[in-house]
Amino acid sequence: MKNFFAALIALLLPVLASAQLSISGKVTNQTGEALPGATITLKQTASSTVTDAAGKYQFNNLANGTYTIEASYVGYTINSKSVVLKGSQTINFILSANATSIEEVTVTATRAGKNSPTAFTNVSRQELQKRNFGQDLPYLLNQTPSVVTTSDAGAGVGYTGIRIRGSDATRVNVTINGIPYNDSESQGSYFVDLPDIASSINNIQVQRGVGTSTNGAGAFGGSINIQTTTRRDTGYADISTSAGSFGTVKNTVNLGTGLLGGHFSVDGRLSRIRSDGYIDRASSNLKSFFVSGAYYGKSSTLRANVFSGYERTYQAWNGVPDYIIGDNTIPNNRTYNELGLMPDGQYYKDQVDDYTQNHYQLLYDQKLSDKLSFSGALHYTKGKGYYEEFKTDAAVANYGLTPVVIGTDTISNTDLARRRWLDNDFYGVTYALKYVPTDALNLTLGGAYNRYTGAHFGNIIYTAQSAGITPNYEYYRDDAKKNDFNIFTRGEYKAGDVTLYGDLQYRRVAYSFFGLDRNLNNAQQEATLNFFNPKVGLTYQFNADNNIYASFAVGHHEPNRDDYVNSTPVTRPKAESLKDFEAGYRTTSEIFKGGINLFYMLYSNQLILTGALNDVGEPIRQNVKDSYRAGIELDGRVKITDNFSWAANATISTNKIKNYGQFFSNYDDNTLVGQTFKKTDIAFSPSFTGYSELSYAPFKGSEIAFVSKYVGSQYLDNTMNTNPAGFPVTGDNRFITDRKLNSYFVNDVRLRYNFSVHSVKNIGLGLLVSNVFSKKYEANGATYPDIEGGQVVNYNYYFPQATRNFLASVTLSF
After folding, report:
1. For the range 460-463, what are the long-range contacts, defined as Cβ-Cβ under 8 Å and sequence gap of 24 or more?
2. What is the pLDDT of residue 219?
3. pLDDT tens per residue, range 72-100
4. DSSP calls for 574-604
5. Ranges assigned E (strand) in 276-329
6. Are 199 and 269 in contact (CB under 8 A)?
7. What is the Cα–Cα distance from 42 to 57, expressed in whole angstroms?
8. 420 Cβ neighbours under 8 A, 6+ residues apart
9. Ramachandran angles phi, psi of 4, nearest 5°
10. What stretches of 327-468 adopt beta strand conformation (E)?
11. Degrees to nearest 5, angle at CA 163 with 630 and 481
């Protein structure tokens, strides 16, 4: 028997030796980004595999011999390599985008490339899928440098906000397939109107600073460039459900035909999200769908996207009063929502925001020659909805009515419910022409013309007393129109190791609105602005994996609707301008990928937040002549072992206004008390933000991630929490005495496990435990200080975020 086993082992030794050979590598695109999900095929064995989230693949147990390896990825040209295998080898692939890639021109026309002298972060579909448990898109971007997010409802479902480098959403330019998404008038981006859009996104690029030329309102803090679903060659069906704290439930179905007849594909998604919210009565009822059909020709692509979102959200946009949060004897002191409170102590059940937004996009990409390609898009967005609210003891004179006399009673005030409507249309064309005459030179000519029309009107739908109000009485109506035209040309020229970059943009904005004229009468007003935004930069390439860069960019930004309608032609706010200086270093290797970026953003006439909100929760702003932001951003990811990695970023900044003055209303004598600062901090601008993600994969298909976010203290206004001389503040807790947000450090745990069973391609299980240590903190707020009784009284409102909460998910892929 011993001799038998010895002979058997001797016979198997050559086989065992040959079985130790392997081929492994990584698949990236021309900008160095990993391509997860790429297909790698060994022609001789007919075996294949797909790349992981890092773009890596591996074949094991191979014998000596000659192999042909083929790498393919949707939208990219197939690449094949031949290898003579005598020992384990590493074979990497760099794939070039082909003519069927919509991203090639439509999206990259407004994006930064690997060597662009711009600070940016790319987020892949796989990264979004890992983070997507049903929270709004800003929460899924919370890991990018210099980003701070907040939620009105406290748990990331419903109305959420995002700031980049301290700049709010009105300064963050958002495009979807190169088409502007920011509201033309308020300039904000309301992702609540597109619930679960993350489930239909292929990738995102987040730029910081002015960045590259783009369509829509100028980017002052940054830009978010979204590309939606692209071609998948095989059919699929995904069913996903998430559920967790605060009654949150998300249901999503994704379907796709794959490539039919070599030319056609259809993809679709249907989603529903419901949540009660952490804050009282901050419920959300959200629905959305996404349908995309495409035709792929030999050198062209035509894609039609239709997507829609509906939201009905109970209003929580005022926050929680400071005296409520500061009183620990109140059981719900951190979740109290006073909106909709009626005289009988009940809450008005329809104190809601109710809005539907439908998007239609037609995208065309044509390869005209080996050197020239064109992309164009037609788009139309229809939005209609209202916010409804209960008003106690409202004066009828404020609604264009005269008091009504009934018998001996004069009705001059009444409880009422009103709806304030917005019915708007946004449509236009975007285009880009890309010319690449040589490997050393590429040129892009692009631009857009967009038109917006918006009807603003209000109805009274209920009154406690007649007051002479007819059913559905319309008490105001005003219309707005906005034409937005831009054209830009951008070029990159490579001379040896140096790449020179230039970008010139002209933008013209014509806005018509209903507002106060010089005589303080409401009338149709006009405002026309012309902007020239040049950008230059250079990149020095040490080698394929290391470069340094520097750039200078100019940006301009027009005031928003509230800035205009709350002023007269004499007091009308000025457009703001920005000079943005950026410099940095980037490196990429198998073990470490990261960079460092320095920025100095010098503003003229910046529209800064005063800390107050208007009656629908929008920030109130004013011009300041001189202000700046300066800082350093660091980000990186290190592969500690094959199964363990650490990603982190941090931003250290100083954000200042020079020669700032603020007035406090003194209600003791009806005067204004001034306060001046030679230099003061800009509101809502923390001097330090940091992010960390420790990720461990104990076995194939699994992930355990420990995610941390730190945000330094922020001021609610621009006074650095100081008060006019001689006017003290009294109180016994920081909520009443401070006009600031304390720093916070929040930690999450995320678990994922993916496996397959029989006919189910993938079963994905996930668990997200947010704020695992149950930290009590506020991520946003507002303040209305004045002087009463010889002292400063702070009327502060805060947005507390949820303590420990969880979401669990199950996904089935067929």
Report:
1. 460/399, 460/416, 460/417, 460/418, 461/388, 461/417, 461/418, 461/419, 462/416, 462/417, 463/414, 463/415, 463/416, 463/417
2. 83
3. 876 677 888 888 888 888 899 998 766 44
4. PPEEEEEEEEEEEEE-SSEEEEEEEEEEEEE
5. 284-296, 300-314, 320-321
6. yes
7. 12
8. 386, 387, 389, 456, 457, 458, 616
9. -60, -50
10. 352-367, 372-395, 404-406, 409-411, 413-438, 441-463
11. 110
Angstrom distance (rounded) from CA 728 to CA 712: 26
Q: What is the pLDDT of residue 731?
A: 83
99, 101, 103: which is closest to 368 by C-alpha?
A: 99
In the block, tokens 């946003």 appear at 780
Tokens of 725: 């001389």
Residues paired with 573 in a beta bridge: none
Question: Which pair of tokens denotes residue 632?
Answer: 């350093």
- Radius of gyration of the chain from its Cα atoms, rounded to whole angstroms: 29
Sign of torsion over alpha carbons 542, 544, 545, 550 = positive
Q: Distance (Å, rounded) from C-alpha 67 to C-alpha 70?
A: 10
Residues 6+ positions from 40 with CB-CB distance below 8 Å: 27, 48, 49, 50, 51, 57, 59, 69, 70, 71, 93
Residue with tokens 């998910």: 809
Contacts of 1 (CB under 8 A, 6+ apart): none
Phi, psi of 87 (to 5 degrees): -160, 170
Q: Let me know how long the chain is.
A: 814
pLDDT at 407: 75
Residue pLDDT, tens place only, 633-676: 999 999 999 899 999 999 999 999 999 988 888 999 988 888 89
Alpha-carbon torsion (668, 672, 678, 680), positive or negative: positive
785: phi then psi, degrees, rounded to nearest 5: -80, 150
Write out the H or E segment, with its range, that includes residue 773. none
The dihedrals phi and psi of 137, each to the nearest 5 degrees, come to -55, -40
Tell me how far apart the alpha carbons of residues 240 and 25 are, in angstroms, rounded to a whole number. Answer: 32
CB 121 within 8 A of CB 145: yes
- At 19 the pLDDT is 47
Task: Say how far residue 599 (Cα) sits from the centre of its chain.
Answer: 21
Give me 663's structure tokens: 């007035």
- Domain segments of the chain: what residues? 2-95, 236-813
Please list, in sequence order, all residues whose beta carbon lies within 8 angstroms of the beta carbon of residue 575, skipping any fewer than 6 positions away. 529, 531, 556, 557, 558, 559, 605
Give ∠ CA 687-693-694 in degrees, rounded to 5: 140
Burial of 439 (0-12, 13-18, 19+ CB in 10 A): exposed
- Return the pLDDT at 573: 87
Q: Are the C-beta atoms of 173 and 219 separated by less than 8 Å?
A: yes
The CATH number of 2-95 is which of 3.80.10.10, 2.60.40.10, 3.40.630.30, 3.90.226.10?
A: 2.60.40.10
**pLDDT for the residue numbered 259:** 87
* Alpha carbon 589 to its chain's center: 28
Contact call for residues 604 and 626 (beta carbons, < 8 A): yes
List, in sequence order, every residue forming a beta bridge with 441; answer none if it has no partner: 438, 493
Per-residue pLDDT at 17:
42
- Contact yes or no for 47/40 (Cβ under 8 A): no
CATH 2.40.170.20 is the classification of domain 236-813 = yes
Low-confidence ranges of the chain (pLDDT < 50): 4-5, 7-19, 99-104, 616
- Which pLDDT score is estimated for 47? 74
Give the 3-state secondary structure of residue 803. Answer: coil
The confidence score (pLDDT) of residue 14 equals 45
Which of 513, 485, 420 shows the shortest CA–CA distance to 185?
Answer: 513
Asked whether the beta carbons of 523 and 543 are under 8 A apart, the reply is: no
CB atoms inside a 10 Å sphere around CB 500? 15
